[in-house]
Amino acid sequence: MSANTSISHDDVRLVASIARATSMRRAQAAGGGHLATLYRRLRDLEARIGGPLFERRGERLVPTARAEPFLDVAAAIEDRLAEVERRVAALDDRLVGPLTVTTADTLAPRVCACLKAFGERHPQARIALDVGAPMLDLARREADVAIRPTTSPPETLMGRRAGSFDYAAYRAKGGAAPDRWIGYHGDVAAAPAARWLAEHASEDEVGLRVNSLSAAAAAAAQGWGRALLPDYMADDRLERVGEPIAALRSELWVLFHPDLRANPRVRIFAEFAAAWFRKALA
Fold first, then answer.
1. Distance between CA atoms of residues 231 and 179, nearest Å
2. What is the reported pLDDT for 3?
3. Above 60 in pLDDT, residue 136?
4. CA proximity to 155, closest of 85, 250, 255
5. Per-residue pLDDT averaged across 136-146, rounded?
6. Which residues pair with 241 in a beta bridge?
7. pLDDT digits over 62-116, tens only?
8. DSSP letters along the chain, please?
9. Cα separation of 275 and 107, whole Å?
10. Are 229 and 105 in contact (CB under 8 A)?
11. Which of 51, 154, 184, 258 has the fewest CB atoms within 10 Å, measured from its CB?
């Protein structure tokens, strides 16, 4: 690259958008404009820096080493923009506007009840719920508040402990469920309950494997066998078998980024949710 070649913000955004989309057509669909223009901009940039920014592997475009500085800068820009968003949000002194909450799928019914109670008290808050296993990035404002089962919340977040809960075996209520376990696989296989089950149940004792605790609860309710579940998932379809497993006792936390501690929506919701769950889990 010649000494007088300058790199613009548009160049950084171009490389980042293609890397994120993994193809020119998907990048064009995400960003708008014409596909031919996108190709021309990439060719011009590659000519200026003296080599290709992407290589094709099957249907995917994979960044080359030349693209790495662009992607590092793009990530840094996203972090700084997220910091600006958090600082601006923290100055909002109204209890109105958007509030995004993220939680695990196992907690979705409880969180929905909590959000309904909060919404009735604060009708001008526009609440969004994102349910999924991975914790969304609160630093990048993917969500404002996370409600998560954990015994070790991230040190980069603030929060309130909202109670504790146990794990135990559950089966279909009133049914003659076979003496076998419902096991776990996929992403949930790394969860503490799944690891405990892997250590204490042989392959022959597992009649079905599922990739979520919600699926395990549904399978147990249908009579597949015993499912190892947190007690907050127990409902009128299930009955507990034996005592809770002390080694799996865990906690529920309401978490948010420190930059948002002065934001009234975040602060008041976190206090409300923590109190609501303490009562619900008692």
1. 20
2. 47
3. no
4. 255
5. 70
6. 169
7. 999 999 999 999 888 887 877 777 666 555 555 667 889 999 989 999 999 999 9
8. --TT----HHHHHHHHHHHHHSSHHHHHHHH-S-HHHHHHHHHHHHHHHTS-SEEEETTEEEE-GGGHHHHHHHHHHHHHHHHHHHHHHHT---S-EEEEEEE-GGGHHHHHHHHHHHHHH-TTEEEEEEE-SSPP-GGGTS-SEEEEE-SS--TTSEEEEEEEE-EEEEEETTS---S-EEEE-GGGGGSHHHHHHHHHS-GGGEEEEESSHHHHHHHHHTTS-BEEEEGGG--TTEEEES---GGG-EEEEEEE-GGGTT-HHHHHHHHHHHHHHHHHH-
9. 16
10. no
11. 51
* Residue 240 phi, psi (nearest 5): -80, 145
CA–CA distances in Å: residue 123 to residues 51, 97, 108, 118, 252: 56, 10, 20, 8, 26
Q: Is this structure's pTM higher than 0.90? A: no
Q: How far apart are CA 188 and CA 209, in angstroms?
A: 11
On the question of pLDDT at 282 being above 90, the answer is no
* Crossing angle between the packed helical segments 68-90 and 9-21, to the nearest 10 degrees: 100
- Segment 184-208 mean pLDDT: 90
Over range 273-277, report the average pLDDT.
95
The answer to whether 210 and 235 have CB atoms below 8 angstroms apart is no
When computed from its CA atoms, the radius of gyration of the chain, rounded to whole angstroms, is 24
Given pLDDT bands bounded at 50, 70 and 90, which one contains residue 139?
A: low
Name the band, by pLDDT with cuts 50, 70 and 90, for residue 34: confident
β partners of residue 227: 170
The residue type of 47 is A
